[in-house]
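Severity: low
Component: inverse-folding endpoint
Summary: output formatting inconsistent between runs
Steps to reproduce: submit the following structure tokens with default settings.
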């Protein structure tokens, strides 16, 4: 698949829209140091108002301001979906004690009540059937997830965390991967599904296929191993 910059922070849609509140970055520094912060994305619709990743704790005030600019308070967020447990992705979880919280494969609500799910078995966690679901996409870490939003104006948007560092990330992602083979397989599945990908440390990008138009969300079919099977 070819890719191209999206050149927009928001993908409108009905019933769900996707807006990048903060574009992530990653910068190698001398001495083996790395400076990074994660992309923070808002998924908004009639039943679900979800934040995908929260950025690092150093960005607490900035995140609150970004939500306020969208007319939201922390208590308006119904779900916080952290693609994995690294500090630049989960740093502001404590702003949302009333939300349903997902970190990797761990799902909880309220004061430490953990809920069953089938992500570790390779099956999605569905927030709203046909529109919003969490997909297991292991590799960067073992319990890594991405969030698929279907039916937007551009088709299916996948907020992919560190499955993709950025557009045209070459082999950079491999050096940061716990299991490159599994991550490469998950990357291929997401590219087969998505019309737009929101990576963990860069700007969103479109996925272009010759002779293919519209939403490919219907491709969520059962696959052995780390495949996905939609269900309510």
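Observed output (run 2 of 3):
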């Amino acid at each position: 698949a070819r890719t191209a910059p999206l050149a927009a922070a928001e993908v409108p849609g009905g019933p769900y829209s996707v807006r990048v509140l903060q574009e992530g970055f990653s910068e190698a520094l001398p001495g083996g140091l790395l400076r990074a912060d994660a992309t923070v994305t808002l998924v908004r619709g009639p039943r679900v108002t979800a934040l995908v990743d929260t950025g690092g704790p150093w960005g607490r005030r900035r995140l609150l301001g970004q939500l306020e600019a969208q007319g939201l308070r922390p208590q308006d967020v119904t779900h916080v979906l952290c693609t994995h447990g690294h500090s630049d992705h989960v740093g502001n979880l404590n702003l949302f004690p009333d939300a349903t919280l997902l970190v990797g494969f761990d799902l909880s609500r309220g004061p430490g009540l953990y809920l069953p799910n089938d992500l570790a078995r390779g099956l999605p966690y569905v927030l709203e059937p046909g529109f919003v679901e969490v997909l297991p996409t292991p590799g960067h870490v073992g319990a890594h997830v991405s969030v698929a939003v279907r039916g937007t104006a551009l088709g299916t948007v996948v907020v992919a965390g560190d499955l993709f560092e950025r557009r045209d990330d070459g082999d950079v992602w491999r050096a940061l991967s716990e299991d490159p083979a599994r991550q490469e397989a998950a990357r291929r599945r997401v590219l087969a599904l998505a019309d737009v990908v929101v990576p963990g440390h860069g700007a969103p990008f479109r996925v272009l296929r010759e002779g293919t138009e519209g939403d490919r969300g219907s491709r969520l079919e059962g696959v052995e191993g780390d495949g996905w099977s939609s269900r309510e």
